[in-house]
# Entry
Amino acid sequence: MLGTYLPILLVVLIAIIFGLVALTFSSLIGPKKKTALKLSPYESGCAPVGTARERFSIKFYLIAMLFILFDIEAVFLYPWAILYKKLGVFGLVEMGVFVVILFVGYIYVWKKGALEWE
Amino acid sequence: MEQIIFYILAAVAVIGTVLAISEKHPVHAILYLVTSLFAVAVVFYLLMAPLVAVFEVILYAGAIMVLFLFVIMMLDLGHPEKGFSPHWREWLPALLLSLVSIASLVMVIVSRHSQLAVPAAQSIPIREVSRRLFQGHGVAVELISLQLLFALVGALYLGKQQASSPGLPPSSAPERVSGSEEKSP
Amino acid sequence: MGIEILGLPMMYYIAMVAKVLVAFLFVLLTVAYATYAERKIIGHMQVRLGPMRTGWHGLLQPIADGLKLFFKEEIIPSQASTFAFLIAPVIALVPAFMTFAVIPFGGVIEVAGYKIPLQVASYIDVASGKVYDVNVGVLYILAMSSLGVYGIVLAGWASNSKYSLMGGLRASAQLISYELSAGLAIVSVFMLSQTLSLNEIVNQQSSFNGLGWYIFKQPLAAFLFFICSIAEINRTPFDLPEAETELVSGFCTEYSSMKYAMFFMAEYANMITVCALTTTLFLGGWNGPFATVFPLLGLVYFVAKVYFLIFFCMWIRATLPRYRYDQLMHLGWKVLLPISLVNIVVTGIIGYFIK
# Structure
């Protein structure tokens, strides 16, 4: 086990160091002539109106929720997939029922119009 | 070596969680929570449970936390830095409950130590995990699928309600999902 | 060679550091020259020349670009949340580099009497000669790519600019939608391989000099996976988050200098990852004629296949127009998701009858 995860830790370390060093150096080297206008958010050259921290569409909440649910389904499919030849008919039917139940939910969500973007 | 890595990761997880609770800015709190979950995932890997480790990252850090982030951004909490901290009386129940759980943890550790029966962690092949899950707990798997269906319908109705009357925050729907997940390997 | 640290021979550590550094440099160089190749290839496809001034046929262009970005002024917008704004590019970059650790890019080579498997996160048991790698390799890559969403959504949120926020939100919604279909598409590969280890998946595709590749057994899954991956890394025709006609530059509108470069690097590193993963899962990895006899030839095959897929991505960019956002979500949720589910069911039934 040690032999397989040690290189990953090394890669993480190098990637983080690389990122931080690049950030620090460029902020040290670059010019610093800041003006209030330069630091204001970009809005096509006009003066910024209001704030960006506004409520946004509920659609994104729904998408994230559906993503979690189907992700859990996928998570159950992975261990099943690597063993399904050994599990035989029982495994096939078991997973078939699992998928069909969720597919019913998927069709329900579709019919209710949750997947529509206007 | 593994013990050193374990203690570093455990420290990261605990500090991350404490910061996630004490941080007033919700988005920063989520960042700390993700760090903590990630550290816990690596601890699972060290404990020879790679499947659990990967699922922890995919589901908790990669999916549920994204939902939390979306919800927090959606609610637009304004300037939470200026918010008030809860009164000590509101802390009291939480403090009491955490004391109980810490006390039981200590008791478990002490009783384990006297028995001296901590077997060395053994790597279980992934196929063995899935064989046990799908042959031994077939009904549970189907129940989880039903639970996911309920959650799907529930999420849909929360989302629908939201569209007609903006202002109500979506309640904690993911709880049911995370609860069902804990039964897996 | 007799010294051992923590149960592993000294040579293991030397090989590990060497492999990590070589892989890292390979990715960095490929990222740099992929930007050049993209401009050159698309230029020639549109009957232009592309960059010509810096160096012979513009060969020094990536270095010039990099230096320019390095010396640019770093701007942190006054309304931005500084901490999240600074940390977002690093969060985007680190998972992009982490994925390379598990991809096998060659067979086992022998250096100074010690066998080294050409895969960063692996080691060889000297006694049995068996190569061990991360036994959940593919899921590790999926986990890392699911962390990539934080860089984007944080960048959009922390900038506190309307374009950035919209870009970040769109990008993250797109990313999670297509990640789902990609994750379901590769389930059918696991059903064939019966393992999650990338090393074994490559070994199983070594038969019949190319005819054992999974792209021939699972063409639909390969197609789905590649489409979803292109969408996941926000490339044309799915580059909605950076649709400059409506969102300026998406989530990195407010970013400048090295921080902007890091998002750029993360995007190209992700493209290389996706191409390498597609090669490993469907195109037989480093397999090819005589690859088992001459392990270095396997390395050449692997790089050639990855570069071909990168070229393919650029070709797509030069050919196809961009999707509209509702069309994009429609494609992901109503077309690709059901097809990948049906593909799993069909594979399961056929696989049961064929054995």
Summary: The two ends of chain C are 46 Å apart (CA to CA). Chain C is about 65% helix and 5% strand. Chain C touches chain A through 87 residues (CB under 8 Å).
